[in-house]
């Protein structure tokens, strides 16, 4: 049997309770039999749900953590007061290397704050970033940062590019992912000074062959870049806008084919193609944002995730844990630092 990949599940960190999360864990277990779960939450409650899924067999354990972090709890409060919560203990398990990855659908601010405090960032990384995939004309692309850092500097964007490339290699299967910086124009003189500086830094790094320059908002879904980097404020707005457009498109399509007899007949003729489109636009298939740059693999799921979408988040955690992406980021960060010193000495 292949080496086990141990994944901690914050089973209490969901808007819908633990049942959908555990069902999602069962789906991922079917895909990846080598997963071993550590479920964290109220033990009696979790036991009653887990026994319904025979696939878990003896490949799990439960850590009884009755304390819960709520979606509206202030991160500054829970970081100090809720270390014994399901989320807090899950992060501790990861920091002490008893698990290989962590997945939570809980409070984003609390997850980021507690993870930074307990796990720390990878050596040389200024700040962690939140990364996820979004559909485009060529499949998908990686967008980061999605809200961890409202303000950024040029070095942070350079490091986002490095981490985003490693993300794209794993999730998108790209050998040489193309990198772009989200900006208000494609000309070199456009945008804030730190964005222009980041562009020059990337051009002078080993990432130069991946770099496609600046990317405008209307180009990010056209497939110009496989990795788009930006500050967390802009990235979060771009993500929410893309999700809104996807919902709008789905609503339009549904209304077109349901408002008349001819529309219903057309739907039957095009059902296979429309189902393919529906699958592509379904955000559940891309659930799971990775907190890149930490000394540990932490994946944030949507709070309202159903079993299918939570399984997608677990799949990301599994792939990153299996491939040791953190070590690759550290190695490539060292390459960047060496190049920076060489440039300074020239």
Describe the structure.
This protein has 346 residues and is an alpha/beta fold. It folds into 2 domains: 1-125 and 293-325, Isopropylmalate Dehydrogenase, CATH 3.40.718.10; 133-283, Isopropylmalate Dehydrogenase, CATH 3.40.718.10. Helices cover 48% and strands 16% of the residues. The chain has 11 helices and 11 strands. An 11-stranded mixed beta sheet has the order 3-2-1-4-11-10-5-6-9-7-8, sandwiched between helices. Helix 1 (18-31) packs across helix 10 (307-323), helix 4 packs parallel to helix 5 (108-119) and helix 6 (154-171) runs antiparallel to helix 11 (325-345). The chain is globular, with a radius of gyration of 21 Å. The N and C termini lie far apart (52 Å). The relative contact order is 0.16. The mean pLDDT is 88.
Overall pLDDT level? 88
The coarse silhouette is: globular
CATH architectural designation of the largest domain: 3-Layer(aba) Sandwich
Q: In the CATH hierarchy, what is the class of the largest domain?
A: Alpha Beta
Tell me what portion of residues adopts beta-strand conformation.
Answer: 15-25%
Name the poorly predicted regions: none
Main sheet attributes: strand count, strand direction, barrel closure: 11 strands, mixed
For CATH, the homologous superfamily of the largest domain is named as Isopropylmalate Dehydrogenase
Task: Count the E strands.
Answer: 11
The CATH topology of the largest domain turns out to be: Isopropylmalate Dehydrogenase
What is the end-to-end distance? 52 Å
């Amino acid at each position: 049997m292949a080496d086990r990949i141990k994944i901690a599940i914050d089973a209490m960190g969901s808007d819908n309770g633990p049942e959908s999360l555990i069902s999602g864990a069962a789906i991922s277990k079917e895909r990846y039999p080598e997963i071993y779960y550590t479920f964290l939450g109220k033990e009696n409650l979790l036991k009653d749900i887990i026994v319904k899924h025979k696939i878990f067999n003896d490949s799990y354990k439960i850590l009884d953590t009755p304390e819960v972090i709520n979606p509206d709890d202030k991160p500054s409060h829970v970081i100090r007061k809720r270390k014994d919560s399901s989320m807090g203990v899950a992060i501790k398990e990861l920091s002490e290397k008893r698990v290989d990855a962590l997945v939570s659908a809980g409070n984003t601010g609390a997850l980021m704050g507690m993870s930074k405090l307990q796990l720390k960032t990878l050596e040389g990384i200024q700040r962690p970033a939140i990364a996820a995939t979004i559909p485009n004309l060529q499949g998908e692309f990686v967008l980061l940062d999605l809200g961890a850092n409202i303000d950024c500097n040029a070095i942070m964007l350079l490091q986002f590019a490095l981490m985003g490339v490693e993300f794209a290699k794993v999730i998108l299967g790209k050998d040489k992912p193309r990198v772009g910086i989200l900006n208000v124009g494609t000309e070199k003189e456009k945008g804030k000074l730190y964005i222009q500086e980041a562009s020059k830094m990337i051009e002078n790094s080993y990432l130069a062959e991946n770099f496609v320059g600046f990317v405008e908002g209307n180009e990010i879904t056209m497939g110009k870049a496989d990795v788009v980097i930006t500050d967390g404020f802009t990235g979060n707005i771009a993500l929410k806008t893309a999700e809104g457009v996807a919902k709008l498109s789905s609503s339009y399509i549904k209304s077109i084919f349901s408002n008349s007899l001819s529309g219903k007949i057309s739907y039957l003729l095009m059902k296979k193609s429309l189902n393919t489109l529906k699958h592509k636009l379904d955000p559940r298939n891309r659930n799971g944002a990775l907190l890149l740059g930490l000394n540990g693999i932490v994946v944030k799921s949507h709070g309202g995730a159903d079993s299918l979408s939570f399984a997608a988040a677990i799949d990301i955690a599994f792939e990153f844990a299996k491939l040791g992406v953190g070590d690759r980021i550290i190695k490539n960060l060292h390459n960047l630092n060496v190049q920076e010193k060489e440039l300074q000495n020239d």
